Every structure is written in C-alpha cells, then in structure tokens.
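Review box. Two proteins, two foldings.
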Amino acid sequence: MTFSPAHSSLLRTAALGAILCGCTATPGNGAPSTTTETTVTPSIAQPMTRVYSAATSGFTEPAELVLRDQAALDDAWRTLHSRLPGNPAPAVDLSTRMVVVVALGSRNTGGHGVRVDSVTSDGTRTTVHYTATAPGTSCMTTQMITSPVDIVSVARREGAVRFERRSVVQPC
C-alpha cells in the first residue's frame, strides 16, 4: 500500500506525537493500566539416567508415572514385561532417586516412539518434558502392535510432577 506524501507526513507526525506524549492504553473504565512484577525462578535440567527404552512393552494404555517406592517400581516393571516372571526391576536407590515412566500405550503399527527429553525443576515444581513420535501418513511401517515406553531415573523430588508432551509426526 502506498500513501501520498501528505498522508505519509501526517502518519509520521501522529506516530511521533504518540511517542513524545507517552500515550498509553487504558482499560475500558478509563483508569490507567497497572503492571505487576513477578519473579521467575529458572527451571534447571536435572541429570537423568535412562533405565529402559523400547518400542514394545506391556503398557497397553498410555501412562505417565512417577515411582518413589519399591512396590510401585516392581509393579511397573511387571507391567513392562507383561507380567512374565524372571524380569526383576533394576536396582535403584529410591531413597535418593525416583523413576519416571512414560508409555504411549498400544499403537497399530511400528514407527511410533517416546523419549524423555529432560526433567526440570524450579525448586517447587518438577516437570518431565517428553516427545511422542508418530510416522507420517506416507510412511511405510511394520504391521505389528507396538507400545513404546521410556523409563529414566532422576534425583528424588517430593510433590507433584507435571508432564509436558511434545508430539512430532515424522515425514518420510
């Protein structure tokens, strides 16, 4: 869009006037707006150890689990291995660490995956960031039921843990 020299001059003058007089928007009632300062504590990535990762597992339903005691770890490990005996849970010192399980549940084809990208903490809240990957519509995939899972251990934190999922479709 082009403006005539007179219109351009008028627009520049109006813009300069607004800047110089410090015009501000006001809420609908005519009162000046207020600003509230907030202190933001940065989240710090926590070191993690990958315990197990696979394209197939016994987790037929999606799961986001935080395991802080041996009974919960043993139960999740039995689910991971479809309740088959002879697959003991790994040794994890649950007094200083916790185990995080992210499972996508059953998928009709291969090409799906899940990966814990990071675990962050801002001192009061812990967040698990993970990526769920699916094949693109034109991808050739194995024709089998899969159930991707990723399991990591991190320093133990009390309180609720939030999960943030990022979904990615892989082009072929």
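Next protein.
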Amino acid sequence: GANFVPKRLLSYRAPQKMRKKMALGLAPRTTLPIHDFPVDSKPVGKPAGKVLSPHSGPMRGTKVEQSATTPTSYQPRRAVGESLLLLVLLACLGCGQADSTKPVEPPPEIAELSFAEQVALGRAGDRKRIECDLPVTASHLTEVFEKPEQETWLRDLILDGGTVGDEACEVIAQLPALRHLRLRQSPITDVGLAKLAECESLQILNLPHAGSSSGTGTASDGSLTNEGLAVLATLPDLRLLRLGGGDLDAESADVIAELKSLRQLHLIGVPIDDRGLRKLASLPKLQSLYLDDAAVTESGWDWLFAEHPQLHVHVNHQHVDRDPNHADHSHD
C-alpha cells in the first residue's frame, strides 16, 4: 500500500541529488539512510509498525515490514561509549574505596613532641600552644627562643617536665602574646616573678612549685616572699593564679587581695586563716577559690558560704558539699 516502504528500499541509497532535495524538503522522503537502521535481507512478513530513527525521529506515514529477528529499537554508538565511561568511573571509585581502607596513623599527641619540634610547628602556623612533658631547662628556652620578641604565635606555654628557674623567666617575659604559663617543678622566686610581671599579656599564671624549701621567707635565700608576690599587681588582666610554696604565710592574703582582676585563685600549702579568707573573698571578680592545707576553721567556712554563696570552693582537692556551684566549673 501507499503507507508502506518496500523491503528492498531499506538497502537502497537514493542518488545524491535526490538526497539533497529530501534534506531541503523539496522531495518526499521515502527511504531511510542505511546507517540509521539495521538491514535484514531475509524475507519479510506483514507490516509490523512504524520505524523509529534515532536521528530523524518517528517517520510519519512510513511503515516497513519486519521479521521476527529485526529489532524494534536502535542502540546508538554513543550509548556504548557512555557505558564504557561508566565502567571506568566505577573502577576508579572501587580503587578509591580500596585505598580508604588503609589504616591512617593519627598525629602524635602534642605533649609527646619535643620542645623544639613544637616550636617549629608553631612557627609554621600549625600551633599556638606548647605543652611538653619532656624535660625542658632554661638553656633549652634560651637556645630555641633566641629572639623571643618575634614569637608572636605563642599563646600557651605549658612545661610540666624539667626545671625552669628564674633565669628562664626573663626569656618567657619577652613573649609578646603569651597568655597562659604553667611551670611545674620550677622553684620560681621573687627574682623570676619580677620578670614575669613584665609580661603584660599574661592572664593565667600557674606555679605550683614556686618558692624554695628553706621556709625563712627572705628574698636573699632565693625564696618567694610576700614582697615578691606584690609585683603581680602590675599585670592588668591576670585572671587565674595558682601558687604553691612554703615561704608564703597568712599575710599573703593581704597581698593577693590587691590583685583585683583575679577570677580564680588556687593556693597550695599557704596557711590562710579565717581573717585571710575574708580578705580573699573581697576580690571583686573572684568566682573560684581552691585552698589546700589552709588554716581556715569551720566557722570560717560557715561565714564564707553564708556571705558568698556564689563562690565555687575546693578544700584540700575536694569539692565542698555546701558549694551550690560544685558541678559548674572547670579545672586548669
């Protein structure tokens, strides 16, 4: 019929002039290009429906006869390429998953690095804190911090190993951005404390083993006295003070009461009595008070909790049950 294309035309290629006219719409299109549809040379049966071309779309009014082996859809070469590309991508993803299963070694803890290694990381911009459990001496500090005024990156200096004496305090005091200093096992005396008082950026000063064991309380024998303690009043933003040393006495409370910026105070082995407790409680910004081996009586504590219930209090490393803020604090 007029609506069917004879089977033989499927393998027929129209002359070039005719194909140009067909492309310009000057001649009716009655054939399909041979590369658009697979050719079957076997005898055909009855017409089976419209022929779809992936390039030209559905052919209106054009039907062909198809055999049982003639496919009814066309899979273009582009689809094959896309399939291959998908396989390559899946293979790459598989490789990535395989690599991700390899164990990744965690970075070393900061305290496990040497003092010099941590300084190098800080200078590279990876650290603002030094926390070292390994032995550090004054010679280490002097050698590494050859120009301490240039170490603008350092905020926290935590030295829990070794002995750092007064001679190192002059170097430490020149660190321009230092806020937190902790020196364990370091018997800092009046001389070193006077140097540290020159570090105006200091906010946290933790010296649990300051002073000497002589017990005479005089600066001449290399101890920490109330006179030396008074220089800390020059620090404009000292917020936390932790001091330990047998050379301080009950009168130390009068000196510490002049450190008006204090928020947290921890005294170790300082024999603060009831009168001294009242002086310390007068600090206008005080929030936390820790006293170990003090000489405060039961009536002294009664007065404190009655008059200053907002204070968070530790006595001899223990929470005080009467403290209403016993669960609302942090330790340094």
